[in-house]
């Protein structure tokens, strides 16, 4: 009986040794397979995306070459000289306060940047308070230049007169548009796209 147990023990020991060797070989093979798959995937993806990026970059370069620098819109800003000319006209008395909106045409980032520049300047002068943003629901996408929307009965009120004179002194034309369905005492400046 001792011989059977000893032979069984030897056999289990040999098989265990074979299993251990197989685990090592299998582990190495599995690691090699994972590395080979990752390498192939990386190369295929690199080739695929390199072609797509090259196509995109060449398309962008081509389109940019077709737009001359003169056709690219620069962001308008009030110059220091325009601010200097406008400031004394917009100075208010101690009991004067006016608030209104300076909005921009929808879909025109440059228009909104210029409108924000105007709002910042006007808000820096005591007594003036402006708010606004892009007009998403009003059809103003084809609007050009600066426009002031006012009621016909309020063309000569002090804040409108001051703004008109200040913008004129800076060489900025405010096109007046009569909108009689606006609430009394309200007026709006809209910044449209640059150009005539």
Plain-language structure description:
The protein is of the alpha/beta class. The protein is 53% helix and 14% strand. It has helices at residues 2-66, 80-90, 109-123, 158-169; strands at 98-105, 128-131, 134-135, 146-150, 174-178, 188-191. Strands 1, 2, 3, 4, 5 and 6 form a six-stranded mixed sheet that branches. Helix 2 runs antiparallel to helix 4.
Question: Helical residue percent?
Answer: 40-55%
Mass-distribution shape: rod-shaped
Which architecture of the largest domain does the CATH hierarchy give at level 2?
2-Layer Sandwich
Number of domains: 2
Spans of at least 5 consecutive residues with low confidence: none
Average residue-wise pLDDT: 79
How much β-strand is present in the residues? 5-15%
Major sheet size, sense and barrel closure: 6 strands, mixed
What structural category arises from helix and sheet content?
alpha/beta
Under CATH, the topology of the largest domain can be stated as: Alpha-Beta Plaits
CATH class of the largest domain: Alpha Beta
Count every beta strand, where a strand is a DSSP E run of 2 or more residues: 6
- How far from one another are the termini? 111 Å
Order of helices and strands: HHEHEEEHEE
Count of helical stretches: 4
Radius of gyration: 37 Å
